[in-house]
Each structure stands twice: as structure tokens, then as C-alpha cells.
Amino acid sequence: MEQATSAAVPLDVLKGKKRKNKYRKYWPLMTMMIPGLLYLLFNNYLPMAGIVIAFKDVNFAKGILQSDWTGFDNFEYLFKTSDAYIITRNTILYNVVFLVLGTVLSLACAILLNEIKNKLLLKAYQSLITLPHLISMVIVSYLVYAFLSPEVGFMNKTILPWLGIEDEVLWYFESKYWPVILTLVHFWKGIGFSSIVFFAALLGIDEEYYEAARLDGASRWKQIRHITLPIITPIIILMTLLSVGRIFYSDFGLFYQVPLNSGALFETTATIDTYVFNGLMGSGDLGMSAAAGLYQSIVGFILVVLANYSVRLYSKDNALF
Amino acid sequence: MKNESIGLTWFSHIVMFLFAAICIIPFILLISASLTDQSAIIANGYSFFPKEISFDSYSYLYERGTDIARAYGVTIFVTVVGTIMGMAMTTLLAYPLSRNETPNRNPIMFIIFFSLLFNGGLIPSYLVYTQIFDLKNSIWALIVPGLLMNGFYILLMRSFFQSSVPPALIESAQLDGAGEYRTLWSVVLPLSTPILATIGLFSTIMYWNDWQNGMVYITQPEYFSIQNLLNRIMQDVQYIRDNMGSNSSEALKDMPSDTIKMAIAVIGVLPILIAYPFFQKYFIKGIMLGAVKG
């Protein structure tokens, strides 16, 4: 019966019906995605249009869209000040140190973790070293403050006297100490986490390689050098390249909360992210901050694309796109 | 050869033990500082072994606990509602993208992917949320900006669905008459608990720890989360120090004393320290899952 009907219908109508059916069939799948896609539109794509304010003399009385166009003035002001140089330098230098030293340290930790065969202790170590990663930067700023408070901190009251240093150090006013402090805090918070990432990669190495090496009389150290390291080198290179793509972005919480946003420390603690944030919160210039934000977005985007391109050259499977 | 291997094992234990100790020592200082009598702190500073133990700071906080209780209320509400909404949104986006049949899959993948690579930045987002949506000083300002965390988790969940849910199972469920929503709920999700647990946990931690949205969008103290309350207390102290120079100790007298400050931070971090042993397994598994899939 059904066959008879369809035979009577012209072919192109049938095709149209089929397509309509296809969409009707997948309608539920399509509608599922609507909330997420709308969210992406408003949360991620609409702000992209908002980058025009970097080219405006923002005047809230007139409204954003009605504010006067200023062309590249905001960028000109930004790059005329020493601020642009300082925030770019700090953002990049900190990231380079974090990347190079961080990779070495977390890889070393992962290899040591891999040597521990006692399951219970291994779990205990893993839990304790990842604990700092779980804590918010606000809490971290309190922990650091317990050490560095000028009046009652552990450094000034206990450690410096032990070392025989009489003068108290006003930690939150002396910018020269902060590259070291911020690096230590960053590693304290992050090394445990990233060593677990490497450790996961080490667990994937086939035990047979090690057995074969042992039969040939290779020492543990030789096994690490000639089996472990070569096998995970691609992962290290991949993660390094991806971090290079993020080199224009800083860990905002670290640079904002831990130095307590102290103005005296600008020289060594300001990054592009803290500069933009301070501009928005009123202690800076909104137009220049928006310009700095756009500068970050564009250079960051170019770096990600370049980094991905290098990953592609190195290994096509590992490229993001 | 054997000796060397044992030596390496011992070395590993020593290094990891020291590392683990370094990770928890600051928390010990924080807790012991909060339990020290204020006069002992003025004399000796914060220390690991308080000379005079006192619970004054905690009883002070208990008496004036309304701010803290309210801040915790805000934090818990934001965390629960945000995580549930975010998980629902992530799942509903990831599942269709994991199915080969879904039309227009590639453009949608690109939309998600591009959002990872390029963003307008803080100031344009602020303008969208305050000028178009009027979220300033609303509890939704603490929830909405974090809903999808970032697109990476959608991709993570999608690849989990693809690798762990056999398409044949979905087909047979649909032959039995299950619609897409039914299939997702009764077939796909029960098979995906590891990824749901991971993303749910990371989302919970993200909301619990968030202070940035509160700082940007909230100026009225009644919507302060616990992180924002802590942040405000520290900022006030620093503000006085920055602006009053040598007179600051006079003005600081009215601020929470050194020991109370530490006690508030302990109250802020204690729930996490207490809950951590129960979820650390999933936390570490989650990190590894992200590492392997990513």
C-alpha cells in the first residue's frame, strides 16, 4: 500500500520530503545544543564585537556606542608610556621562567613518583602535592601574608633574626624580591599538578621495555635516560609548544592577589592581565586598558596559531587544528 | 645494580616527602597563627608553635558570624546552581557533537574551538554583562560567566562519549523507541560517570574558589562570596597601609587583629581541607584523564 503511494509521487518531491524527514529526525539533537550555543554567542562572541571600544574615547555619559572614535590614539598613549614595556616584559619573562623551570621540575617529580612502588605512600604523596592546586589565590595570598607581613610575618619575626639580619624588610614595598617570591608561589601551587600530568604519561609506558632493559643489565638510571625520556619527549615538546601559545596570558590571580595589588610593586608584578583589570576597576585608564586587552588578544591569537603550526610540523596527530 | 635501584627509591621517597611537607607547611602556619593569642603574636609574630593558645579569634568570629554565614550561603548557592546548570549545558552540547549523524557538526565544533583561541577580553565581557544584561550586583553575575568553564571541557566530554559509548548501544536503544533525550539520560550518562564526576568536580572547585567575578560585578556586600569577603578584608588592610604610611598602625587598630585575620582564612579554607580526603581520588583521576585525553 505504502509502496503504491510513493510510486505515484514525483521524484523531486520525494527528495524534499526525505530531507525534511532527516531534519525532523535530528531535530532533538539540534535543539539540545541551543542553550550552549546561545551562551557561547553572548559570553564569547558578543564581547569580541566589544573590542571596538579600544578605538574609542569611552564616555559613559554618552554610552559606549555613541562615544567618539579616536582611531589608534589609545594604542599610541599606551605604547608611549613605559607601562606597555613593563607589562609585556613581565608577562613574557615570568612565563618563560615558569615554563622552562616548571617543565624540568615537574618532569623530575614525575620520574621520582614513578620510582615509588609503595601504593599507599604514592597516594599520600600525590594527594599532598596536588593540594595547593585546589586552593583559591585569595587563600594563597593569606598564606603568603603569614610569612611576609611586615609587622608579624614569619620571615621578619623568625627567619631573618635566625639568619642574624636585624633590619625588617617591608616585603610589600620592595619590588626587587618579587620575581623570586612569585616564582616560588607559582611552583608551590602548580608543580604537584603538572607532575601528575607527566606521571599519567609515564604510566602509559609499556612495562615490557623496562623488563627487556633489565635483562640486558641496564641500570635504573640508564632505563630512565634511554627509555623513559625518549618516550615522553613528544609529550614534553607538545606541552611546551602549547604553553608558548599562552605566553601572552598570565595567571591573573597570582599577580594580582599574592602581591596584594600593592602599587609599589608595579615594576616587577604588573602583567597585561593586572593592567587591564586595574584599568577596569578604576585605578587606570579604561581606553588604554581596552587597548592593552586587545593587544593581548591579538598577539595571543597569533602565537597560538603559530604554536599549533609548529606542533603540526612536528606531529600532525597532536595538533589542535 | 640492585643497590643503585634501592638508592633511587630512597631518594625518591626523601624528595617527595620534603615536597609534600612544603605543600602543607603554610597551612600549618595559618592554623597555628589563628590559634595564637594576639599579644603573643605582637611579641613574636606568627609562628608554628604558639606560646599562648587562645580561641578568642574564633569566639569573636562566632559572635559576629552573620557576614561569614551569609558569604558561605552565597558561595554554596552559586556552586550548586552553577555546577548543575553548567553540567547540563556542557552535556547537551557535547552529546550531539559526539554523534556522527548530527547535521552541521563541523561548523559548531569550529564555533567552540575558536572561542578557545580568541576572546574579547575582560573589558568587553564586562560591558556585555553590565550594559546589555544588567547583571551588576546580581547573584547571577557570579554564576553566568563561569557556566561552560571553557570550551575545552566540552571537547573533553565529547571525546569521552565517542570513545566510551558504543554507537550500537545508542542504535538499539532507539530501535526500542527511545528518543534522543531518553537515550542520553538512560544509556549514555550512566556509562559516562567518570567524565561527569571529573567535570562536576572541576566546576565545583572553580565556583568555590572564584573571586574575580565577585570583584568585577559585585559591590554590595550582601552578595559577597566567602572568597570576596576574605579578599575585601585583606584589601582594606593593604589600602590603609598604602595610603597612610607611618600612621597606618593607628588606623589598623580598628581592623581585624592579626589573629582574627588568620582565623577567617582558616574558616575559608577548612571545608576544602576536610572534604579533600574524600574526593582526592577523583581529583587526581580527573587530572590524569584531562592529561591523557587532552
Automatic annotation (TrEMBL), chain A:
Where is the ABC transmembrane type-1 domain positioned along the sequence? 88-307
Report how it sits in the membrane. Answer: Multi-pass membrane protein
Q: Sorted alphabetically, which SUPFAM superfamilies does this protein's record hold?
A: MetI-like
Short name of one Pfam family for this protein?
BPD_transp_1
Asked whether the keyword Cytoplasm is assigned, the reply is: no
List membrane-spanning regions.
Answer: 26-42, 92-113, 125-148, 177-205, 226-249, 290-311
- What Gene Ontology cellular-component terms does the record carry? plasma membrane
Main localisation: membrane
Q: Where in the cell is it found?
A: Cell membrane
- Which InterPro entries does this one have? MetI-like, MetI-like_sf, UgpAE/MalFG_permease
| Biological processes annotated in GO | transmembrane transport
Q: Which UniProt keywords apply?
A: Cell membrane, Membrane, Transmembrane, Transmembrane helix, Transport
Q: Which family does it belong to?
A: Belongs to the binding-protein-dependent transport system permease family.
Q: What is this protein called?
A: Carbohydrate ABC transporter membrane protein 1 (CUT1 family)
From TrEMBL, chain B:
Ranges for the ABC transmembrane type-1 domain? 72-279
Kindly list the organism's lineage: Bacteria, Bacillati, Bacillota, Bacilli, Bacillales
Please tell me the species this chain comes from. Answer: Paenibacillus prosopidis
The answer to whether the entry has keyword Iron-sulfur is: no
Q: Where in the cell is it found?
A: Cell membrane
Q: What is this protein called?
A: Putative aldouronate transport system permease protein
Q: Which InterPro entries match?
A: MetI-like, MetI-like_sf
An example of a Gene Ontology cellular component annotation for this protein is:
plasma membrane
To which protein family does this belong?
A: Belongs to the binding-protein-dependent transport system permease family.
What are the UniProt keywords, alphabetically? Cell membrane, Membrane, Transmembrane, Transmembrane helix, Transport
Give the bilayer topology: Multi-pass membrane protein
Which residue ranges does UniProt annotate as crossing the membrane?
7-31, 71-95, 107-127, 139-156, 184-208, 260-279
Which biological process annotations from GO are given for this protein?
Answer: transmembrane transport
